[in-house]
Amino acid sequence: MTAPRLIVGLGNPGPEYEATRHNVGFWFVDQLADKLKISLAPQSKFFGRAGRSGDLWLLEPTTYMNRSGQSVGALANFYKISPEEILVIHDDLDLPPGGIRLKQGGGNGGHNGLKDIQARLSTPDFWRLRLGIGHPRTLNLNQQVADFVLHPPRLEEMPPIEQALARCLLAWPKLAAGDYAGAQQQLHGKVV
After folding, report:
1. Which of 6, 11, 43, 168 is the most buried (most CB within 10 A)?
2. Architecture of domain 6-188
3. Average per-residue pLDDT in the chain?
4. By the 8 A CB rule, do 73 and 120 touch?
5. Catalytic residues
């Protein structure tokens, strides 16, 4: 069991993107930072907003989504953090709003942030916490994917997304301990 040393929330910088579906990774890291009383501050050498508590770093890249790897690679290389010690939180089109999946490695599902991180780390073997935002087709929306992810969730999509974020925070003690199997059991189970 390898405890994570770097928690990365993916999103796009700037107020115009703050409430968009693509930024759910930022939403989680903001909530985790509050919970752990970690202040995130701009760190130009890591191309992001970062903060730490002991050995644990929280990071929100301030590059755009498709350059996320620049930020993750800079911090991971500087502090010699291995891919297995990195947990990336990101939006996922293949899961319904509020869906959660935790896994290590695998493909990038067309997600440009993951694609860039894999390229910069030269491996897909980091952990991912996938937060469902739904897909325009399954939600019966006639919207292009790129447009869909850059818009805020609809009113009815917000409660399940907020519940998913709350469930992920509840699973934090297991995640922090590197008990990914326990966290998966907790997160992948049915909501009661």
Report:
1. 11
2. 3-Layer(aba) Sandwich (3.40)
3. 95
4. yes
5. 22
